[in-house]
Every structure is written in structure tokens, then in C-alpha cells.
Structure prediction request, 245 residues.
Amino acid sequence: MEGWQRAFVLHSRPWSETSLLLDLFSEESGRVRVIAKGARSRRSNLKGTLQPFTPLLVRWSGRGEVKTLRSAEAVSLALPLGGICLYSGLYVNELVSRVLEQETRFSELFFDYLHCIQALAGANGTPEPALRRFELALLGHLGYGVDFLHCAGSGEEVADAMTYRYREEKGFIASLVVDNSSFTGHELKALANREFPDVATLRAAKRFTRMALKPYLGGKPLKSRELFRQFVPKNPSLKSPPDTQ
Prediction:
């Protein structure tokens, strides 16, 4: 199995009459762009294989920015995502595509991604906890370090009922100001543990990841959010997108 890697397709688009241009997220090489020659032809044995959320074994060749896919095999059937969980999965794929530098190894994040997609596929309720855990894992792997458990001003452990205001590059500092950048100690402990036992902690996690990811995403809107907006009119019970914007 020399040269083979575990991978997922993040995004694909037509390339010439019979080929596909793929963004892959691989275990050893991170995000890689490859051309799958002939993958769109009627006789291709890759037809139906190179789909998002399908666990793959792949290998490629080439030294340029765009590689050539040599082989691909599905390890299993695609993880079953539907409805809001499908849009959540598309958001995760877009996030990885937008944030990670090409051909930079993120082996641990690869498994965080896998666990997130598995959680979305098995979700009976809201996908939000799985999304927030992945976002926090992503921030950690990008080197975004923040201490949720101690006041940046005093060094003391955060208290559940106390309010702390987030200051970029400093951390959380005890404050009487309550605004979009303020979090209770209870919410900060939930962020540290990546466990969200109630609606308040889940909303706080979304507020924090929204702020923390903004510099990485820039001003370009997320396509997955636009797709979700088109989906909402058909599903009025879904009030807000599953992403961070």
C-alpha cells in the first residue's frame, strides 16, 4: 500500500470534458488539489466514488501545485448525511478548504474531521455540538491558543457566575461589561471541555468560534451558508444556518 493515503473529497468541479478537479483532505499531506483524468467518462470506474463524505484510499503523483490522481478506492459507502446535517457537512468541507494551507500535514485534524462527519451522520438532533467541537479543534491545530480556565488579568481560575470579556491576543479578563464579547465562567468551562450541556453554552461556543475564525475566513462569504438559505424556505422550522457567520 506504499503511496496510498486515507482521504476525503472536500470539493469537486468539472475539468475538461471528461476529468474532475478535486480538493482532497488527506491524512498525511493535508489539503491537496488533484486532477482525476477521465473520471467523468461513462466507462470510468471512479464514477460515483469521488464524492464528498466517502472514505477513500488514494494516491497521486506530480510535484506541481496540482497533482494527478493515479488511483482511488472507496473504503466504505459514503457517510449518510441529509437535511441540515448535509449542509453542516458542506460547511465543514468549505471551512477546511478555506482555512488550511495546501500540502500542510494535519494528521490529528484529519481524525477530528472524520469524527465530526461521523457525528453528523449519526445525529438525531441538532448538529451544532459536533460543529463547535470541530471548529475548536481546527483553531487549536492552527495554533490559536487561548486559556478558557483562567482570567488573563489576575491569573485566577474563572468563576461560574463571573463575566469575562474576550480580548484578542490577551484572553478573557473579568469585566462588568456584558456584550457580544462577554462570557460567563460557566460558558468558558464548557468551551474548555468542548461539552455543551445547555442552550446557553452552545450559543456561547458559536459566538466565540465566530469571532476566532473571522480573521482566517476574511470577508468572502461562505457558499455553504447561501445554500442553506435556499434550503430554509422549504423548512421554516430551521431558523439559522449551522455555520459560524
